[in-house]
Amino acid sequence: MTAQGHSAAIGQTATADSQAAANAVHLVCFLLGDEELAVPVDRVIEVVRGTDLNPIVDNTRYLAGMLPYRTETIPVVDLRQWLNVPPSDVDVVSRVVVVSQGTKLIGLAVDDVTQVLRGDRRFWQEPSGDSPRQRFLAGYYTEDERRIPILECDHLPGI
Q1: Which CATH number fits domain 25-155: 2.40.50.180, 3.30.70.1150, 2.30.30.140, 2.60.120.10?
Q2: Closest CA relative to residue 31, chosen from 108, 143, 145, 139
Q3: Can you point out the beta strands (E) in 33-94?
Q4: Looking at residue 5, what is its pLDDT?
Q5: Which three-class secondary structure state does DSSP give residue 101?
Q6: Coil, strand or helix: which one is 61?
Q7: In tens digits, what is the pLDDT along the chain, a chain of 159 residues?
Q8: What integer pLDDT is reported at residue 41 of this predicted model?
Q9: Burial class (CB within 10 angstroms; exposed 0-12, middle 13-18, buried 19+) of 94
């Protein structure tokens, strides 16, 4: 291969790599009961254990408690209550997904974090339908038999 041919092949590979990166979707997937949901990985700060969650008196319906996190205390949303998912047999928050909501941090109480999904944007579908839940979704990731609702962090309950 000539130097020119080699340079062209490298350029084509770089273009293909940049297109793949532009079409990439990265999601943190988690469980609430039997239901799998996700949030975009660029909104996730950290996943922590829920053992330090402090319940609060006179809490709102969606607030699971307050979590000491680094140098501050952040509210933790009870996603089961917020999304009308049946209560768990276990009354302990297993994991808290800490996400950014604008300039604030909030926690999402989840049963378990299952994976960081690396997929293709062509499997992303816009939310549709009349379900009240649709207004809280950024879309769905649909591939093979999976259809994962993706939460829109900016539409989480304000606390």
Answers
A1: 2.40.50.180
A2: 108
A3: 35-40, 44-49, 63-69, 72-78
A4: 52
A5: strand
A6: coil
A7: 555 554 555 554 545 556 666 789 999 999 998 899 999 999 999 999 888 888 887 667 788 889 999 999 999 998 888 888 887 766 567 899 999 988 899 999 999 999 999 999 999 888 877 776 777 889 999 988 889 999 998 887 766
A8: 96
A9: middle
- CA proximity to 55, closest of 41, 38, 73, 43: 73
Contacts of 34 (CB under 8 A, 6+ apart): none
Amino acid found at 150: I
> CA 48, CA 52: separation in Å to the nearest integer?
9
Residue the block writes with tokens 């304000």:
158
The beta-strand segments (E) located in 7-145 are 24-32, 35-40, 44-49, 63-69, 72-78, 95-101, 104-110, 112-120, 124-125, 137-143
> What are the structural domain ranges in the chain?
25-155
Q: Is the dihedral of CA 140, 43, 80, 135 positive or negative?
A: negative
One-letter identity of residue 84: N
